[in-house]
Design brief:
By secondary structure, this protein is an alpha+beta fold. Helix content is 28%, strand content 22%. The protein has 13 helices and 16 strands. α10 packs antiparallel against α11.
Length: 448
């Protein structure tokens, strides 16, 4: 597949009044890249996946159909001292991930993927191929965090590669309620965004059988951590800022950056080439719903206990909260530097996820996650209650089937982009006034 075929597909779709859906072959929470209630054509980019790395200039051109696992693998193949910052799950597609932000285990040190994009190639609504220079800074701004598919079809990204040491240190320490997890999670909220920028202390919360009381469930808190440096420095930092965790040297493992990518997603000892496998998503079967929130003030102990209660009401291990700390480099950018607005003032982001096997259980599980989301309202950001665009959630609002109104799109648009939404609408009005590139949550033009 090449760019001329994409241009032809755009011309044909326009001529016949069809919508196009752009699929990168990775993940899509709400399926907007391959389902629609209106007639549409899929442009599938999964064969546009070449990755060209320039170690001398510390840059890479990455086609939009690659996965982040492939990107990480190809960088590590060329250099032990260069890396890129993006998500943890290796089967995520580059196109959507980069254009929506791209948060990962090194974001407190290096920002998001979008913060490290220096050029892009995009095919616009007239079928023209544009780069940063020809598209102009407004459009280049919009596609780095505002979602590429509202503005055109991004075929490739040029990114800045990042200097890292040959070894990083990781650990995954689990604590249950019987081991003081409530107090640990409470304390974590006060330090996670303030520790050394090289340290990212991620936290996963699940309900499953207690190792201490057979047949009874408890909450497990998994402190899953990466430190861009050696074990002694890491121990010093954790013992200084979070002594309650009781971290010891035996909990920590020094490894290369690329080994850490595998460590966070696969069983210990899995070979690195697993990152090239596009079909290793953990939830191939069954159903899934995700939502997100931003937390600006620590949740009280009583608030946490309410979460535990709700986690115990859903099937064992079927739901998970993932708490990802902010601060560090994430706070160094202004909210308007890219469309991704979640900067200073956020302690952490929450990702809520629930999985289930059978279609007939859908109603029950969807109602559970919405109940949890309702419960969390008092503890999270307000006016707007913010959300992360890459954790797409149609519960936040959708466009009309025809040309949506600005007022209707603003309902969900403010949650993802805050005050950047208005600038995104202006860019859209300029580059795609007829709203050719559209879906249930695409940025609309102002209708003249």
């Amino acid at each position: 597949m090449d760019e001329s075929q994409i241009q032809a597909a755009i011309h044909c779709s326009k001529k016949h009044g069809l919508q196009i859906r752009i699929r990168g072959g990775g993940h899509d929470y709400e399926g907007l890249s391959y389902i629609s209630e209106t007639p549409f054509v899929i442009i599938d980019l999964r064969n546009l996946r070449s990755i060209s790395i320039d170690t001398e200039n510390k840059t890479a051109w990455i086609q939009a159909g690659a996965t982040i696992g492939e990107v990480y693998y190809r960088i590590a193949e060329k250099s032990k001292k260069l890396a890129f910052v993006a998500g943890v799950c290796s089967t995520v597609g580059v196109g959507g991930h980069f254009s929506g932000g791209g948060y990962g285990m090194m974001s407190r040190k290096f920002g998001t993927a979008a913060d490290n994009i220096i050029d892009a190639k995009l095919i616009d609504a007239n079928g023209r191929i544009q780069d940063r220079e020809s598209m102009g800074e407004d459009l280049f701004w919009a596609i780095r965090g505002g979602g590429g598919t509202s503005f055109g079809l991004v075929t490739s990204w040029k990114v800045k590669l990042l200097d890292i040491p040959e070894k990083v240190t990781v650990f995954n320490v689990t604590r249950t309620l019987e081991q003081n997890a409530t107090q640990l999670v409470y304390k974590w909220q006060h330090i996670a965004d303030k520790v050394d920028d090289r340290l990212l202390l991620r936290l996963f919360l699940r309900s499953s059988e207690s190792p201490f009381r057979r047949g009874q469930r408890t909450i497990h808190a998994f402190f899953t951590t990466m430190f861009i440096g050696g074990v002694d420095e890491l121990l010093h930092e954790v013992q200084k800022s979070f002594p309650e965790l009781g971290l010891v040297k035996e909990d920590c493992i020094e490894m290369s950056w690329i080994e850490s990518i595998v460590y966070f997603w696969f069983p210990r000892g899995t070979p690195l080439h697993v990152l090239l496998n596009r079909n290793t998503a953990t939830n191939q079967t069954g159903y899934f719903k995700g939502k997100s929130d931003y937390v600006r003030h620590p949740i009280s102990v009583n608030g946490l206990k309410g979460i535990w209660k709700l986690l115990n009401q859903v099937g064992e291990n079927s739901a998970e909260l993932q708490l990802s700390p902010y601060g560090g480099k994430m706070s160094d950018f202004s909210e308007s530097e890219t469309p991704f607005p979640h900067r200073a003032g956020n302690i952490f982001m929450i990702h809520y996820g629930v999985n289930w096997e059978k279609m007939e259980s859908s109603k029950k599980h969807l109602s559970w996650i919405r109940k949890l989301y309702g419960y969390m309202a008092r503890y999270v950001s307000k006016s707007p209650r913010a959300a992360y665009f890459n954790y797409r959630d149609l519960d936040l609002g959708v466009n009309n089937k025809g040309n949506t109104s600005y007022a209707q799109a603003r309902i969900w648009g403010m949650k993802y982009f805050k005050n950047n939404f208005d600038r995104l609408v202006q860019v859209k009005t300029k580059v795609d006034p007829t709203n050719f590139f559209r879906n249930e949550q695409s940025v609309p033009p102002l209708l003249s």
